[in-house]
Structure formats: structure tokens, C-alpha cells
Amino acid sequence: MSFDNILLEKNNGLATVIINRPKKLNALNKATINELHTAFKAIEDDESIRAILLTGSGEKAFVAGADISEFADFSVQEGGDLARQGQEMLFDFVENLSIPVIACVNGFALGGGLELAMACHFRIASENAKMGLPEVSLGVIPGYGGTQRLPQLVGKGKAMEMIMTAGMITADEAKGWGLVNEVVPQEELLALGEKIASKIMRNSSTAISAAIRAVNANFADGINGFDIEIDAFGECFGTEDFKEGTTAFLEKRKPNF
Q1: Fewer CB near the last or first residue (10 Å), C or N of the chain?
Q2: Full-model pTM
Q3: How are beta strands 101-105 and 61-63 bridged, if at all?
Q4: How far is it, in rounded angstroms, from Cα 138 to Cα 172?
Q5: Residue 208 in 3-state DSSP?
């Protein structure tokens, strides 16, 4: 599979997706969003892949934002369509992917870049990372889920401050607010992502997929997350992974999922 704006690597059950527009600080344009969707869809259809790392090429940026030149002259209708299509094609798609996606934030994650990181299941960052939603400085608001996911992660008050000031926070501040889980030197970032992914891949991919659905249900309007959890819990009892996991436990051995 060939791409112009991203790189896709697969190794022993781990897929690494690299946004590869370093001269544009990996800014998201329509073509890149389309390619990311295609890559994630192909990964989800690949039964050998059990975890995904998402990062940006170079040392400066994860994704420094959207490509403003593409929509600077859009109408109201075009702007709404841009947000709706982007959310459905990429951001919501990543959030609801059945395979865990870890964002490895290696520099600037601004605007659509932070929104993409927040759509991942969790985030780790390099010490030089800076994160923010600067959209109001351009006369718009975050349109790829930022007004919804940021309050879920850092709380309403801090999210309001970040959005209204259009300011950036450091990696350490992001960790303090729960926006990222870990902060390490940049040269250690992917190694940490691989280490976390290896721990994930030891466990049942079927159960992890069910856990993703149940956790996400808590943040969906009109859905009782407890009901989703109960149903998903019960469904696990009918899987081969449940049989293997419980048998291995009783036999005092490691499971072979």
C-alpha cells in the first residue's frame, strides 16, 4: 500500500503510522485525512495487528494543525461539511477503532493535531511537545471534536481556558492535567510506545476491543454505558479468548491469545 503523506510500518503485530509532511510540520490536509482513514481501515482489517502507534515525522511536530490554505475561503456550508466529513472519516473512526491507538506526540500538537491525538485511546509525549487549540485566533472554533474531547480529558474549566486563550501548554503541564499519560525525552518516545504496546499485545484483543466500546459508551449521548459494559462482559464468555484466559489462569501458565 503506497501513500504520499503518511508512512505505514508493521512489525510483529504492531503497526506504526507516521504522518509524513515535515516541510508543512505534518499539517492535516484533505489528502492526509483520506490516507489516514485508508491506513487505519486496512490495519483494522489485518487480524495480525494488535496495537497501533501514531506519530509525526521529524523532531518538530506531531501535527501542527490543519492546512489553513485549503479552507480559508470556505462558505458556511463548506465549513460545516469539512468538520462533519473529517470527524466521521478520521477522528470518530480512530476513537472507535477496535485496535488500541497510542498517540506518540513528538513536538507540536496544535488544532487538528491535538484533536487527532485526543481521538486516540491515550497519549504519550516527548519533553519538547506543546499542545493547544488556537482556532479562536483565526476566527473559528475547534471543528474536529476539540470542544468535546478536551473537556472530557482535562475538565471543563481548563478546556475553556485553553480554547479561549488559544494558548499552548507544555508536555509536563499536559501530563499534570491528564491530557497525556507519560512524558519522556524525544529519543525515547517511540521506544516507550512500543513498550506499552507490547504489554497491551499480551492480552486478549477481543476483550480489549470490548473494553474500548464500553469506555467510549460512557461519553456517547443517549447511551447507558453500564448497559454496554454488561452486554460486552457477557459476550466475552462466548469467546475463545475467555476460554484460553481462564484455563491458563487455572493451569498457572501464561495465556496464548
Answers
A1: N
A2: 0.95
A3: unpaired
A4: 26
A5: helix
Neighbours of 76 (CB within 10 A): 7
Name the residue among 62, 34, 66, 33 with its Cα closest to residue 140.
66
Q: Which residue from 45, 60, 54 is spatially nearest to 1, judged by alpha carbons? A: 45
The catalytic position among 9, 95, 115, 187 is: 115
36-93 pLDDT per residue, tens: 999 999 999 999 999 999 999 999 999 999 888 888 899 999 999 999 999 999 999 9
**Rounded Cα distance, 71 and 90, in Å:** 18
Buried b (16+ CB within 10 A) or exposed e, 184-217: bebeebbebbbebbeebbebbbbbbbbbbbbebb
Catalytic annotation present for 127:
no
Instruction: Output the CA–CA distances (angstroms, integers) from residue 149 to 24, 35, 190, 257, in the order listed.
Output: 25, 23, 24, 32
Choosing from 47, 70, 127, 135, which is the catalytic residue? 135
Dist CA 140 CA 126 (whole Å): 28
- Look up 88 and say whether it is catalytic: no
